[in-house]
Specification:
Helix content is about 40%, strand content about 25%. It folds into 2 domains: about 180 residues, Ribosomal Protein S5, domain 2, CATH 3.30.230; about 150 residues, Alpha-Beta Plaits (2-Layer Sandwich), CATH 3.30.70. About 45% of the residues are buried. Helix 1 runs parallel beside helix 3 and helix 7 packs antiparallel against helix 8. A hairpin with a 2-residue loop joins strand 5 and strand 6. The strands form 3 sheets. Strands 1, 4, 5, 6, 7, 8, 9 and 14 form an 8-stranded mixed sheet that branches. The longest helix has 21 residues. The protein is α+β, with helices and mostly antiparallel strands. The structure holds ligand DP6. The site of ligand DP6 has 16 residues, from helix 6.
Length: about 375
């Protein structure tokens, strides 16, 4: 987070030079996040139908470097390399993003932009990478805008702009701009919350038991997602349970904020698991219908619940729009839960793969 604190000054210096001399590079590391209250359904221009809440991870991240220089043609040129190889799909996605919101990105119009991106997690791990990659894209663009002389004034406003652009690229990405627990969506409980960008929850509102929570991601299947996010969200348009779901998410959010503040693990577990199963329930009973859990997903859930009951260890599971299981638990139970994963759950994982992660500190800028 260092640059954003220093960069307004830097931006002013650069602004006084002419555009032809603008060149340099920007390098961000941006982590993924795991939603506890799920964003599922959107309206208007990338606005959520209900508020969502996640925590940012520490070890699953995208690193993106943006090299910029004046374009030889006078028009914007974009190149994109993923893990060292040119990637046309990602390049086209960025071009489309910049062209969809031309008034936001005029400062890029005469530049040659070269992106290099890598993920810390394997491409085939079935982990959604749009949150970290689009978060990284947004932060690279914010840093570039600053170097082009754009100054949003207050630091907070600069971060909000990054979250706002990340949201336009991918909803869940707007939460990855901050570390810790992050809310996206206007809720009456938090006056500064907004549908336009995410808001980090203050540490005072998070009980110490949740501060260094762990997330072990069990890779049940690394296959491509059967339904894209865009198509998934669209399933909520005209869904018979849509309104009830949006109301439930608001209620869950209020209850989860209380549980996080009070250190109420029991309430946390109930809400978080219900959110995951509701997400899958909504997909199962939409038109068309999708079953994204695999038999091994259910087997793991059953084992986790038995383990919790028998050992009285407060763990919870959550799921994204896919078969992989996120096992969530307080750091104090790290050893017991990891032993249990190694002894009982690893056999359900594809090629015995899992990733141990935890609540993270948020994006990092490399100078
Ligand atoms: C199930 O953020 O991937 O992970 O805005 O279309 O890019 P787009 O959708 P995306 O949706 C994420 C859905 C989810 C729940 C969540 O992260 O809140």
């Amino acid at each position: 987070m260092a640059l954003l604190q220093q960069s307004p000054k830097f931006a002013t210096t650069i602004a006084s030079t002419s555009l032809e001399h603008q060149q340099g590079h920007i390098h961000w590391r941006v982590p993924s996040n795991i939603a506890l209250i799920k964003y599922w359904g959107k309206r208007g221009v990338q606005l959520p139908q209900n508020p969502s809440l996640s925590f940012t991870l520490q070890h699953a991240y995208t690193e993106m470097q943006l090299d910029f220089r004046p374009s030889s043609t006078g028009k914007r040129i974009v190149e994109f390399y993923f893990e060292g190889m040119p990637n046309e799909k990602f390049r086209a996605k960025i071009v489309q993003f910049l062209e969809t919101y031309p008034e936001e990105f005029t400062f890029t119009e005469k530049l040659h932009l070269t992106f290099h991106s890598i993920n810390s997690f394997p491409h085939s791990a079935g982990i959604a990478s749009s949150a970290s990659s689009m978060g990284a894209l947004a932060l690279c663009l914010v840093s570039l805008a600053q170097k082009c002389g754009i100054d949003w004034g207050r630091l907070e406003t600069t971060w909000q702009k990054a979250s706002y652009w990340a949201r336009l690229a991918s909803g869940s990405a707007c939460r990855s701009i901050y570390g810790g627990y992050v809310l996206w969506g206007a809720v009456p409980e938090l006056p500064h919350s907004s549908d336009l960008y995410a808001l980090p929850l203050s540490q005072e509102n998070i009980h110490p038991i949740f501060a260094n929570f762990c997330d072990s991601i069990l890779i049940i299947s690394a296959e491509e997602k059967a339904v894209s996010s865009r198509a998934g969200h669209a399933l909520m348009n005209g869904h018979p349970f849509a309104e009830a779901r949006y109301q439930q998410a608001r209620t869950h959010l209020k209850q989860l904020l209380e549980a996080l503040a009070m250190g109420n693990l029991e309430k946390f577990i109930t809400i978080v698991e219900n959110e995951a199963l509701t997400l899958h329930g909504l997909m199962m009973n939409s038109y068309p219908s999708f079953i994204l859990m695999k038999p091994a997903t259910l087997a793991v859930i059953e084992q986790l619940r038995n383990f919790r009951r028998q050992r009285e260890i407060p763990l919870a599971f959550t799921l994204d729009a896919g078969p992989n299981v996120h096992v969530l638990y307080p750091a104090a139970f790290r050893q017991e839960v990891r032993n249990f994963i190694d002894e009982e759950l690893v056999k359900y994982c594809q090629q015995n793969r899992y990733i141990h992660d935890e609540v993270g500190t948020g994006p990092i800028l490399f100078q």
